[in-house]
Amino acid sequence: MREELNKSFQSLVSKLLGWMNSFVENIPNLILAMLVMLIAYFLAKYVSQLMMKLVGSRVKQKSVSNIIARLTTIMVVFLGLFLALGILNLSQTLTSLITGAGVLGLVIGLALQGTLSNTISGIVISFRDKIQIGHWVETNDFAGEIIDINLKNFTLKESDNNMVLIPNKTILETPMKNYSLTPYIRVDVSCGVGYESDLEFVQELTKKTLEQTFEKIDDMKPVEFFFTEFGDSSINFKCRFWIEGTKNVHKLNATNKAIIAIKKAFDEEGINIPFPIRTLQFNNQLSVTEINDDTSN
């Protein structure tokens, strides 16, 4: 019994001595590995600040700048860790870490597929010059001003002050109309005049009224006038003109101003904007007989 205890004790002591000797022999490598990790730590902080400045100068969304800086920091720290493990001759541990990171990344990617897709889409959208905060856009049957672009949602503020949150993935996969990319907006106004009206005079008067109401942008964008159809009670027309503006409210204000000006001009010239009417025609003549009833008490 004592012999077995002595053997076990000697085995334990030999292992401890072996570990001690191995530790002493690897002290230079351990110091070098710690130095590498320390350098990686400070280098990661510097690279993070540098990425914040570089990305912040191009992307207005602070959340995007933060996530890119953090990802860069993690990559630098992991690089330092792999180098340190290699210095300590822990190649097997290094291989296991790489394999485990790959499997873990695959599992997380499958579990958070939608979230990661929105995150990546948010980063891609943030780097697009033609999509900026403050632009007035129309997408996914919603129209409004871009309020925020984060790593999850695309936020629009509609004209009625409602907020619309759209997933970034949907924005990236759906066509978008951006009214703010050009400084001009085309306004369409439709109306109708009575069949008795002088159509050439109506055309000339409408174009002259709009030219006097709105400042002309250039010769390449004149006021356009088109008669479109013979309606039930009027001859309908459409006029188009350009204004300076980047938002839907500018278009609404111009439409309102144009309708008031056209109505006032037509009233002054006695031009009729008819109500919808219906004429009934009877082929047979109806005779009306007047019956007088004399009553006596």
From TrEMBL:
**Domain Mechanosensitive ion channel MscS residues, every copy:** 115-180
The lineage, from the top, is: Bacteria, Pseudomonadati, Bacteroidota, Flavobacteriia, Flavobacteriales
Could you tell me which InterPro entries the record lists for this protein? LSM_dom_sf, MS_channel_C, MSC_TM_helix, MscS_archaea/bacteria_type, MscS_beta-dom_sf, MscS_channel_2nd, MscS_channel_C_sf, MscS_channel_TM-2
Q: Which residues cross the membrane?
A: 27-47, 67-88, 94-112
Q: Where in the cell is it found?
A: Cell membrane
UniProt name for this protein: Small conductance mechanosensitive channel
Origin organism of this chain? Gelidibacter sediminis
**Signal peptide (residue range):** none
Q: What is stated as this protein's family in its record?
A: Belongs to the MscS (TC 1.A.23) family.
Q: Does the keyword Zinc apply?
A: no
Which Gene Ontology cellular component annotation is one that this UniProt entry carries? Answer: plasma membrane
Keyword Cytoplasm annotated: no
- How the protein sits in the membrane? Multi-pass membrane protein
Under Pfam families, the record lists: MS_channel_1st_1 (PF05552), MS_channel_2nd (PF00924), MS_channel_3rd (PF21082)
Keywords tagged on the record? Cell membrane, Membrane, Transmembrane, Transmembrane helix
Q: Which GO terms describe its molecular function?
A: mechanosensitive monoatomic ion channel activity
Question: Could you tell me which residue ranges the Mechanosensitive ion channel MscS C-terminal domain spans?
Answer: 187-273
